[in-house]
Amino acid sequence: MLIREIETKHILTHSKLPGLGYSINPYVGCQHACVYCYARFMKRFTNHDEPWGQFVDVKTNSAKVFDKDILRVKPGEGAFIASVTDAYQPAEEQYKLTRSLLERIADLPQDLICNGFAVSILTKSELVLRDLDILKRLKKISVGFSIAIMNETASRLFEPLCSPVQQRLAALKTLRDTGIRTYAFISPILPGITDLPATFAALEGIVEYVCGETLNMRCGNLTDVLNAVSLFNKGLRPAFEQNIRSRSYWKSVEKEFYELAKKHAIPVNNFFHHIESGPIY
């Protein structure tokens, strides 16, 4: 594992994510090493030859840069932590960059907070619970967990260094019981592996809403994904390859997604599609 300390010019970067305006990524790369991760496209811009999951750049001056970047934020905007990394990956235990950024946000002038500076965190690590003391100070905060695989054997193949799914579910309950708004991102949905009925049943009562997403293959992840499918269940691979490109299949998945959400009384925020019929690179 290559860990490199770097400095960044900006930590608040413009985002197209709805309702926030900015994203915060204290790290480049991610030690969770999920085989399906779309963020591996970042290798194109970072001069890393290491496989995805085997390098992390640590933006050591994140908190200092935030103090300058926040001055250009408009009233009503907010930040998503994090869009192309996991802000609570193992490196965060040592560097505490995410914690220091949350402290900065919690200490923002009252007028800016009142104007609606919101924070949304998405992670796969129960390490987020370490920062409960700060999260409870934030007026507009939501914390979500990505949950795609309920089967722990499959999870270790596809997302080897994430917190086990039962720990993620327990963390969601803890956050919810603390009064923090919670959500789940059921992503990526993997044909024959993601168990939507079991997932929704597990999420009932511990999240305020869910999002869904099909597998994003436009980032060079397909070979690793298919290898993991074969390791989990070799006989599943032909149907998997057929379904990930099938619009009719994903239409039926989306229909089931909304039906299950209604059954378990969990609002759906969005369902994102990534359906590619041409070459995948």
Features:
single chain, 281 residues, alpha/beta, pyruvate-formate lyase- activating enzyme, eight-stranded mixed beta sheet, 12 helices, 36% helix, globular
Describe this structure in a few short sentences.
By secondary structure, the chain is α/β, with parallel strands linked by helices. The protein has twelve helices and eleven strands. Helix content is 36%, strand content 20%.
Q: Which strand order does the major sheet show?
A: 2-3-6-7-8-9-10-11
**Weakly predicted, low-confidence segments:** 277-281
Number of domains: 1
The helix fraction, in percent, is: 25-40%
Number of helices, where a helix is a run of at least 4 consecutive DSSP H or I residues: 12
Most strands sheet: 8 strands, mixed
Using the coordinates above, name the CATH class. Alpha Beta
Q: Classify the beta-strand content into a percent band.
A: 15-25%
Count of DSSP strands: 11
Radius of gyration: 19 Å
- Order of helix and strand elements from N to C terminus: EEEEHEHEHHHEHEHHEHEHHHE
**CATH fold assignment:** pyruvate-formate lyase- activating enzyme
Task: Tell me, briefly, the overall form.
Answer: globular
